[in-house]
Amino acid sequence: MGIGNIFRAFQPKDKIFFDLFLQVADTLVQMSKNFHEGLLEFDINDETLLNQMSDFEHQMDDLTHEIFVQLGKNFITPFDREDINYLASGLDDIADYIYASAKYIYLYKSPENKVYSEFSLLIYKSCLEVKKALENLKDFRNPAEVKESCIKINSYENIADDVLSQAIVRLFETNDAILIIKQKSILEYLEVVTDKAEDVANTMESIVIKYA
């Protein structure tokens, strides 16, 4: 019996960690979807989007806390405790930076910038792949699909890097110092979301290599 099969034989029957991770994934997908759709029809005087992002961020905090509570209660875990910690923290970081991006768009009263929605689409696509990877990671049912999703997440992060570079070049061409300060900060927050998604992808890929 291979080490992966031996490890699976000792997994907890309630699968609480995978259930929680899938709840986290569902929350991230809905959060990123609402964020993208909200930016497509953005109104700086309507704080509905900001309030939604705040609510989602709190939901994510609660789910992340529950994962850590279960980590303290369960001796046997589906994979390494340190990896559970990294994965939970990484997923929470995605939500934190989506909320931070929304918050600074409102705080800076930033005028509409179509690049924001370019980023939000990449973020949404990344979250969809995170969910798909976590579904395939459950019971290590399809390691190849996990790796495929991780590759896609990495490619979205690379695209986001290019979008950021091009957007900053155009921004400096405005010669508007205040606009540059405000929008550069927002653009960088948005790009960090894709960085955090890539971190999650790297963690999932590492788990697959260890146990699948």
SSE map:
Elements: H1 3-9, H2 16-40, H3 48-73, H4 81-107, H5 114-137, H6 143-172, H7 177-211
Commentary on this structure:
By secondary structure, the chain is mainly alpha-helical. It has a single domain (3-211), classed as Methane Monooxygenase Hydroxylase, Chain G, domain 1 (Up-down Bundle). 82% of the residues lie in helices and 0% in strands. It has helices at residues 3-9, 16-40, 48-73, 81-107, 114-137, 143-172, 177-211. It is globular and about 55 Å long. It starts with a helix and ends with a helix. Mean pLDDT is 90; it is low at 1-14. This is Phosphate transport regulator. Pfam families: PhoU_div (PF01865). It comes from Epilithonimonas bovis DSM 19482.
Low-confidence segments: 1-14
Count of beta strands: 0
Q: Based on the structure given, which CATH architecture is correct?
A: Up-down Bundle
User: Strand content of the residues, in percent?
Assistant: under 5%
Distance between the termini: 13 Å
Radius of gyration: 19 Å
Query: Tell me about the biggest sheet?
Result: none
Q: Helices and strands, in N-to-C order?
A: HHHHHHH
CATH fold label:
Methane Monooxygenase Hydroxylase, Chain G, domain 1
Count of DSSP-assigned helices:
7
The geometry reads as: globular
Overall pLDDT: 90
CATH superfamily: Phosphate transport system protein phou homolog 2, domain 2
How many domains is the backbone divided into? 1
Organism: Epilithonimonas bovis DSM 19482
Family: Belongs to the UPF0111 family.
InterPro entries: PhoU-like_sf, Put_Phosphate_transp_reg, UPF0111_domain
Protein name: Phosphate transport regulator
